[in-house]
């Protein structure tokens, strides 16, 4: 939750960075003035979590009502399951996240978490239940410690470091000139796209939400870094009972999802497991899969290593 006690220069830099990217939903929500259109219901109750089941029911949404982006989207993610959303650029994958966070309300339809309409729950409890590892994390102009602990500034140092270890960024931090006190961001040390994403992962581990949304980074990461980040995420999720949503460009990274949702022109055109979709004759997913696999220069050597879990 937004803290008025933050120094103003810090807020200024936050605002500049946040205009472009989804770094932290709570702050962005407040600073961008979106709350003018989103109102917490006067009878709003705290979200009661019972495992993190997510349900979209006939959701229609466009940033401009005459240009719908989502045109009747329905799906359910049972608690503890992993769902992937795939589809062409601009089809509305990140928009699903913004709706789940209630940056915007759908023009039609409803979204439920554990059976509670998100319109009826307190916004802070809704947002506290969802963690995001965004596509492109902008860092605050502050220490790396602050960047990880952000949103949980009262967390023990041990917990912050343990989250950094689990996100496999601790060793990198210890090699920086001032370790956790090293300043990063626009006016500090620049760190790589993969490292930034691991900072975002550490932040999410620290927050420990029941629902996690991963917006896959593609261009920022080389294949090796991407694979190691994905294996970190997999081990993080294993046995955790967290509900997760993955927005993915590289299909190989989500082939192990419990369910894959293929979005196109505002609707779900295919849905199922990788094994099912890849066998579908004339299937869109099947087509995307083989196109990507053929164009991947590492395809032949990696093919043997690649195992669906
Ligand atoms: P990508 O794969 O490239 O990340 P995406 O599937 O996540 O894309 P969204 O970011 O959800 O796509 O955007 C869906 C559509 O909505 C796009 O056409 C985009 O231009 C438009 N859009 C996104 N944000 C806004 C906004 N704030 N105002 C108006 N239009 C927007």
Descriptive overview:
Homodimer. This is Iron-sulfur clusters transporter ATM1, mitochondrial. It comes from Funneliformis caledonium. The chain starts with 7 loop residues before the first helix and ends with a helix. With 309 residues, it is α/β, with parallel strands linked by helices. Mean pLDDT is 81; it is low at 13-24 and 26-36. The strands form 3 sheets. It has a 6-stranded mixed sheet with strand order 6-9-10-3-11-12. Strands 2-1-4-5 form a 4-stranded antiparallel sheet, with no helix packed on it. The chain has a two-stranded antiparallel ribbon with strand order 7-8. The protein has helices at residues 8-18, 25-31, 93-100, 123-128, 144-149, 157-166, 170-174, 193-207, 223-237, 274-278, 284-295, 299-305, and strands at residues 54-61, 70-77, 82-86, 108-113, 116-117, 130-133, 142-143, 183-184, 211-215, 243-247, 259-264, 267-272. The protein has 12 helices and 12 strands. 35% of the residues lie in helices and 19% in strands. The radius of gyration is 19 Å and the shape is globular. 37% of the residues are buried. Bound molecules: adenosine-5'-triphosphate. Adenosine-5'-triphosphate binds at residues 63, 69, 89-95. Residues 63, 69, 89-95 line the site of adenosine-5'-triphosphate.
């Amino acid at each position: 939750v937004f803290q008025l006690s933050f120094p103003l220069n810090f807020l200024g830099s936050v605002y500049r960075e946040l205009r472009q990217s989804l770094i932290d939903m709570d702050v962005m929500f407040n600073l961008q003035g979106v709350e003018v259109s989103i109102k917490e219901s006067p009878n709003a109750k705290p979200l009661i979590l019972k495992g993190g089941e997510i349900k979209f029911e006939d959701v229609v949404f466009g940033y401009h009502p005459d240009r719908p982006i989502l045109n009747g989207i329905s799906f359910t993610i049972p608690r503890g399951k992993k769902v992937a959303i795939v589809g062409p650029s601009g089809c509305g994958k990140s928009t699903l996240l913004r709706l789940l966070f209630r940056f915007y309300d759908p023009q039609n339809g409803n979204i439920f978490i554990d059976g509670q309409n998100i319109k009826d729950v307190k916004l802070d409890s809704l947002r506290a239940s969802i963690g995001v590892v965004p596509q492109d994390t902008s860092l605050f102009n502050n220490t790396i410690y602050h960047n990880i602990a952000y949103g949980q500034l009262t967390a023990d140092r041990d917990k912050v470091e343990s989250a950094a270890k689990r996100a496999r960024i601790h060793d990198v931090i210890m090699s920086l000139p001032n370790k956790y006190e090293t300043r990063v961001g626009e006016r500090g040390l620049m760190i790589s796209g993969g490292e930034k994403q691991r900072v975002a992962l550490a932040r999410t581990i620290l927050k420990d939400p029941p629902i996690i949304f991963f917006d896959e980074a593609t261009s920022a990461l080389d294949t090796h870094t991407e694979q190691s980040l994905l294996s970190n995420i997999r081990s993080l999720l294993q046995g955790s009972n967290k509900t997760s949503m993955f927005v993915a460009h590289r299909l190989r990274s989500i082939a192990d999802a419990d369910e894959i949702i293929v979005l196109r022109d505002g609707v779900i055109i295919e849905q199922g497991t990788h094994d099912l979709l890849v066998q579908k004759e004339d299937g869109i997913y099947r087509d995307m899969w083989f196109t990507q696999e053929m164009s991947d220069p590492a395809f032949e050597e990696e093919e043997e290593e690649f195992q669906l879990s």
